[in-house]
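ARCHIVE ENTRY
Sequence with per-residue tokens
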Amino acid sequence: MNEPLILDENRFFDSDPAIRRIARDLYQGVKDLPIVSPHGHVDPKLFSQNRPFPDPAELILIPDHYIFRMLYSQGIKLESLGIPTIDGTPVATDHRRIWQIFAENYYLFAGTPTGVWLNHELSVIFGIGEKLNGDSAMRIYDMLSEKLLSPEFLPRALFERMNIEVLTTTDGAADTLAEHQAMRDSGWKGRVLPAFRPDAVTNLANPGWQKAIEELGAICGFEIDSYARFITALEQRRAFFKQMGALSTDQGVESPWTQELSPVEAEKIFQLARKGQVGKPEADRFTAHMIMEMARMSIEDGLVMQLHPGALRNHNQAIYHRFGPDKGCDIPIQTEYTRNLQPLLNKYGNDPRLSLVVFTLDETSYARELAPLAGHYPAMKLGPSWWFHDSIEGMTRFRQQVTETAGFYNTTGFVDDTRAFPSIPARHDLARRIDANFLAGLVARHIIDLSDARRVSRALAYELVKQTYKL
């Protein structure tokens, strides 16, 4: 028997009728605003090539670690889901069978943000009116496959239909940005911008660091055989990214520790890395120094600096060695900000030319450290609930812990941080509903009035992210 997929208009709002009524009113005022997505990991080839998506499994499941990490946790092998390997291990290629496995286990996503996003995606983006399960799997697969072959579901058409104003990709320091150039040359008006991600060359503990340095030198046209040349190369590449429309940089670090090294110390560690002799303590010191350097460069070139600390990457080594990074194995760690960021904020945090957006995976730091820091230093803004906390309760906890100290206007508004392109509207819709509900609670308790709530609601949904990222 077919089970209908119904998205209630009051979803995520408080069950208290007074709060729900105000929340719905606030949401109506922002639900149709354009989407600004200034930090994500969507492949720019989608838009440069503008080819039909291959099939539902390739579009929805295979690239999205939010989905397959849950399935893996229940004993379903990644090989059976068609996740590509790097060690040559064969994987399933029957995408209909892969989709069937996914659908039979769809119940696992009940109550999770992934389930919320997927239901929105299936219903609103693709017009599917039936719940996904083992019985409906092939019917829905065939409906999706037919839609994906139509012009309305080509990547550029979806971009426009989703009402995306700006979408930013994440690109390595040595990236040629050829896909971005191809979009420019095509005359398409969609605004897809690169973001400068230097992790591969700033993290000396990266197993591929020496190869990454060679690639950076090759694209710069000179050998990077000294720390001074390394800095020159980074500045040159940042200038190129900015010329190609970049507005921001992005660094993923295990710790937000910042420390300034002397040129002599930096050169010594850099040369150890070139010889393959650098240890973790030296690599960590170099990363701490490079965070300082990225802040200095951002003051000089105006690129917004994003810092994403607190993930222990590739925790499951067996998965990392077989499938590579970004396979759902990155786990949050306890993270300290007050002392770790003090050198950077003392040197640059009072400079109005710096825009530093700090994210966290450690919710315990919101009220204790991050809100007080952002509520004081002009250069610092708080990124929204990120990754594991990009969720109904995670967003609510963020507002509860941050607002009284930092207010709303020392946050960035919503940033979706996704690889799964069709999920972008679902993520923004969820954020707009949760913020509307939080504001409605403040109105119901007479902490703010309705006109202030409307103003803040629009700021959180659209204006703050544009201001923060200089759009």
Observations:
- Residues 280-301 form the longest helix (22 residues).
- The mean pLDDT is 97.
- The longest strand covers residues 248-253.
